[in-house]
Amino acid sequence: MTAISNTNPLISVVVPAYNESQGISHALSQISGILSATGLDWEIIAVDDGSSDTTFQKLSELSSSEPRIKALALSRNFGKESAMLAGLEYAEGDAVIIIDADLQHPPKLIPAMLDQWRQGAQIVHAVKRSRNQDSLAKKATAHAINKMISKLGGINTNNSSDFKLLDREIVDIIVYQLPERQRFFRGLTSWLGFNEVSLYFDVDNRLDGASKWSFWSLLELSITALTSFTSLPLRIVTFLGIATLILGFGVATDAVISLSNGKAVSGFATTIISLLMIGSFIMISLGIIGEYIAKIYEEVKARPHYLIKASAGIRKKNRPPL
Ligand code: UDP
Ligand code: MG
Fold first, then answer.
1. Cβ-contact 195, 121 below 8 angstroms
2. What phi, psi does 163 have (nearest 5°)?
3. Is this complex scored with an ipTM above 0.85?
4. Model's pTM, two decimal places?
């Protein structure tokens, strides 16, 4: 195991950043201070996820005064999942830590994560004990999504965050063996298994600026999380079909009995209601199937996860081309 065999391990810290120019220098100086205090070799890979502000200029300046800080600029906003993957692909460390750029993930937890790694943990999950600043709506949505994913997909992402330490072995698996386009990092890392440990932290308030997640981007991530970990929604569609079929037989039998007793079957309202209900069942079902087909289409196209337009302090791409 890398943690034990390597006498002078290198620690990489991956920081995805989207329009974080206000707070990025402060955040990186905090992180680098904590890393230096551990006495280990370190590097920070900050990934500018297509920011429209001066995030990358800030990162390049930091990189020219501190070569251990390296930066990548993606060609546009590819989303946090792709930015994290880019960081993982370029990180050279024996252990890689992923942390937000807004200091909502407390860097002071890093030494404790490294301790767990030294003791043999290959994945250290930082789990949220509280969600300080989040609105009630966001807390409720996050709770509902996590519940659904853990119930349906059989993986526990409750209160988990993207703040994690990964051993080199795990990073290589994620980079080389999990090439899927539809990514849900929290789900993937809990799907892996291996030797995992959880540490708890309180979510700090955002350093500067506002959350980058809109309602739609969260919805998109939730659909990705669901479709990439379970096909249960498709099965529900089948069961729904069977249930309506049984109901249909019941109503038909009832109509035949009524007719044979000489009673005409009335019910304009019933006809309209059932038409509308069944019509919407069919459309919703098509929508669910469509979601899966769209995801398959994304995978088949196999476009790159991200494109890089600039870098600072990066020597070479860690990952050989596939
Ligand atoms: N982020 C990113 N790309 C995006 C959205 C967010 O790289 O498209 C980064 C962002 O800069 C931050 C982290 O992901 O470092 C978490 O984002 P944010 O703080 O907005 O999310 P929240 O804390 O509200 O979940
Ligand atoms: Mg945040």
1. yes
2. -75, 105
3. yes
4. 0.79
